[in-house]
Design goal:
single chain; 564 residues; alpha/beta; GMP Synthetase, Chain A, domain 3; 5-stranded mixed β-sheet
């Protein structure tokens, strides 16, 4: 396995192979199996482009050969920041085919995060769009490349600058050698790392999560089975494909494993979504709380024939039971809750579960060999129905982060259980989420590390101290509120704090959306800031404003999408 990764213990690896969870095929071989069965069937639709499985395979092979010619080689790492476009699929599958490891960044990430990923992974390549949502990634790439001598290649889906490599030209130009026999020489071992996902980053910038071909193939196939996927499945991809949820939980990889079709939506608004549901006869939509809330309050869906729609999934943050009920009533389909971590464990409600579980639970583990425990503060397992932290291990849950022994010591028990930080109750094998024990804000499914943003705000000369906490929000579930103590004699405005943070080039979804300026923080007897008290205080302020009929006054003047 790649150096600085923690493998599964031998006895566990042997068990997972014997049970058939690990089938010793790569992600590329999983796709190729479907191509052989369904070559002429449509695999991908984006705007006017319609790509068959056979055409998909040809594009993947061409790019794989070109990437080798460009100097990429097995076990190289590349930062992968392509948005939801067909090139995402072509490039991702081409990279994993030749054993190059993509680090799955989001389109919203900027210099602050990308530099961290490149350094942390030792990346030699960087994949970007040209200009996307009015932001020029090629300029950012030039700046980053100038500061990182090991970064050799920048691949661009769009207009290029200087020595950047055009993906469009690679797709148009036959490669020197893209024969199956030649490419098979670079096929990775299924036990090797296939890709790296990003952690929620509760203690600062995101940690790198190494997922192997064996565990991620199983993750994809098994999650697809639980979600009822087959060759008639038509999945509408709306949320970022780089997210674990949309990539393989069940996402596009499960769709391809089961011979279905992926339709990539050009936008997240109802006007973009529901005409596609009617035209492409979409059967399943992986969604999130803000999207679902928006759809349920829009008249647009009523204008289209949605009878093909069988399932609307929700992931990232728990969907309220009332909204689940409204989905069933309005769209005449099933809602399916998807609760899990990029580190591994996935819990889904079953499509045939009793109504109480579908409307209220966060699902049950997808694998018979998912080991889950709910433990108290000292690690003792609590009885069913009692609240505690969820810890887990299994055939697709990692045993350690990439090259991060300090984080591993904190996040994994000595016997290999991953500490999720989620507070849950377990009843008859099903989980019911209660919140988080870590300092993490869940803004519509995007996780914001309080420590990361606090460290940046503390660099502002007028700030003496800061504490970032979640405040309740009807649409996103949570948004970030920064409680700030200014230095003596200083006055601080919301606009200047946001302006300073923007200069640090962080993702927009991480920006605080309200500040509260105070003289002191509530402290525990040990001198620690009582975050819980600050959360209660801001919740009370917002509730008071709501009752005063002035609404929740979010002070961020910039409309921010968590999927920017």
């Amino acid at each position: 396995m790649l150096e600085h990764c923690t493998p599964w213990p031998e006895d566990f690896a042997k068990l997972y192979c014997e049970k058939g969870y690990w089938t010793d095929i790569t992600l590329s071989e999983m796709l190729e199996s479907t191509i052989r069965k369904h070559g002429s069937k449509e695999s991908l639709v984006y705007e006017e482009q319609r790509i068959t499985y056979r055409e998909l395979g040809e594009k993947v092979d061409r790019l794989a050969a070109h990437f080798l010619e460009c100097g990429l080689k097995p076990l190289d790492r590349v930062v992968f920041q392509l948005p939801n476009i067909p090139e995402f699929v072509y490039c991702f599958m081409a990279l994993v085919k030749i054993g190059v490891i993509p680090v799955m960044a989001l389109a919203a990430h900027r210099q602050h995060e990308i530099k961290h990923f490149i350094k942390g992974a030792g990346a030699v390549g960087y994949f970007i769009p040209g200009v996307y949502r009015k932001f020029d990634y090629t300029e950012m790439a030039e700046e980053i490349k100038a500061e990182n001598s090991q970064l050799k290649c920048v691949f661009v889906a769009g207009e290029t600058k200087s020595d950047q490599i055009s993906l469009a030209k690679l797709l148009e130009t036959p490669a020197g050698n893209q024969s199956p026999d030649y490419l098979s020489k670079f096929l990775p071992d299924p036990s090797e790392v296939a890709l790296m996902l990003l952690s929620g980053g509760t203690t600062g910038l995101s940690k790198l999560i190494p997922r192997t071909h064996n565990d991620y193939v199983y993750n994809s196939i098994q999650c697809g089975k639980v979600s009822g996927f087959n060759e008639k499945t038509v999945l509408l991809a709306i949320l970022p494909l780089a997210h674990n949820y949309n990539l393989a939980c069940p996402g596009i990889l499960a769709t391809y494993a089961h011979g279905g079709k992926v339709v990539i939506a050009p936008g997240i608004d109802p006007e973009s979504i529901f005409p596609l549901v009617e035209r492409e006869k979409v059967t399943i939509i992986p969604a999130a709380v803000p999207l679902i809330s928006n759809w349920l309050n829009s008249p647009i869906p009523d204008q289209y024939n949605l009878t093909s729609l069988q399932v609307i999934q929700n992931g990232g943050a728990m969907l309220a039971p009332e909204l689940r009920k409204r989905i069933k009533e309005k769209y005449k389909c099933t809602t399916q809750e998807v609760f899990g971590t990029a580190e591994g464990l996935l819990n889904l409600t079953r499509l045939d579960d009793e109504e109480y579980l579908i409307l209220n639970s966060s699902g049950a583990p997808i694998s018979p060999h998912d080991e889950i425990k709910v433990v108290d503060d000292v690690g003792n397992e609590v009885p069913d129905g009692e609240k505690g932290e969820l810890i887990c291990r299994g055939p697709y849950t990692i045993r350690g982060y990439y090259n991060n022994p300090e984080a591993n010591a904190k996040s994994f028990t000595p016997d290999g259980f991953y500490r999720t930080g989620d507070v849950v109750r377990k009843r008859n094998g099903y989980l019911f989420t209660e919140g988080r024990i870590k300092d993490l804000i869940n803004r519509g499914g995007e996780k914001i590390s309080c420590e990361e943003v606090e460290n940046l705000i503390l660099q502002y000369p007028k700030v003496q101290n800061v504490c970032l906490v979640a405040m309740p929000d009807e649409v996103y579930g949570e948004r970030a509120c920064a409680w700030i103590i200014p230095k003596v004699g200083e006055k601080i405005t919301f606009e200047e704090v946001i302006g300073f943070l923007k200069e640090q080039n962080i993702a927009k979804f991480k920006l605080p959306e309200r500040i509260e300026v105070v003289d002191e923080f509530p402290l525990s007897p040990a001198g620690k800031i009582l975050r819980r008290t600050l959360r209660k205080q801001i919740a009370a302020i917002i509730e008071k404003e709501r009752h005063a009929k002035i609404g929740i006054c979010l002070k961020n003047p910039i409309p921010v999408s968590p999927w920017m």
